[in-house]
Batch of 2 targets.
Target 1
Amino acid sequence: MKYHRVPLGPIQTNCYLLVNDDKECLIVDPGGEGKKLNQLIHKQQYKPQAVVLTHAHFDHIGGVDEVASHFSIPIYVHKKEKSWLKDPAVNGSTFFGLGEVTVQSDVTLFAGEGSTTIGSFSFELYETPGHSPGSVSLYFKEAELVISGDALFEGSVGRTDLHDGNHEQLLKSIHTKLLVLPEETLVLSGHGGETTIGQEMDHNPFLNGF
């Protein structure tokens, strides 16, 4: 499996395309510029299976409707944030003055964590709340990578000053769900570049002393 990191939207949030040998792909967090993303997918001749959201903040959902409707694919989000998709006051778009960013399409809900299969893709879904209550991370063991959303970044962690954020809960999520993964695991974050679990264990200043 390979991946593409595609920064999209008003603050260049990382969207990820996870692609298997048959050119099937999962689309994770299409934060905006849906038309641009659709064109890229067509150019690469990929076959999208679903849109998966690590959480429902505005900068991760801005392109969802345009992409999902274009390819007629389902949308997955944690049940705790279903209502956020239609509420600009909660998903942050009103707070940041970016108009009303919403998702109007029907969605499929993740009820909880565990082994998950979408199309031909299988992964472990981890609940990693703190940045938001329904934040999830996607761990692909064979590919040795985890998509951490806005929980863990290179040298940093997610902000917790937005709706229902909780810093202590975020640190607990990182330590109990992410830092227990093999140190060589590649971390694909919602913003910024790639890192590894080992690098963050050794050098992330926000994780020291927890």
Note: The chain has one domain: 2-203.
Target 2
Amino acid sequence: MAINKKIAILSGIATALLAGGVHAQDSGWVDSASFDFGTGPKVRMARLAVQKNWDARWFASNGRHLGGYWDLSAAYWRGTAYRNVPGQHQNLFVVGITPVARYQRDDKLGWYVEGGIGANLFSELYNNDDNQLSTAFQFGDHIGVGYVTQSKWDLGLKIQHYSNASIKRPNSGANFLVASARYQF
């Protein structure tokens, strides 16, 4: 499939995801929306996402529990060493879905820790700064910490890793340090 066609398809999916999220807020399908910015070795990422909280509460004790949410995302990556050539750029679009488990207070305010493993589809194969991903499908996993304010803002920091779990080589992975701002409706 041609690169332009892949980008058009992924852009359409991302637009539908985000537009649907805004409209779904009225129906209760979406609980929050977020913006993430990540940085890794010679690559940057900007990510928009919508979330739907799970109703489940596991291991409830002392005012805390394990819960979670679904995360639907659209991201843009910009590499600055395409094919390991400094100054050469690679632009990628990524869409993903991730179930995220979160250990938090029962009122969902204050400090939390979370982790998730999801599925992602890339517009083209990643090849930047001597890191290569040989499939358009990648797993994306993260661990993070954050704080939810009384005014419904969720501010977090996480370590994000993308890899195809050695389905096909090369598979050097891509890592990011990610800052996140999420608003809960």
Note: The longest helix spans residues 3-27.
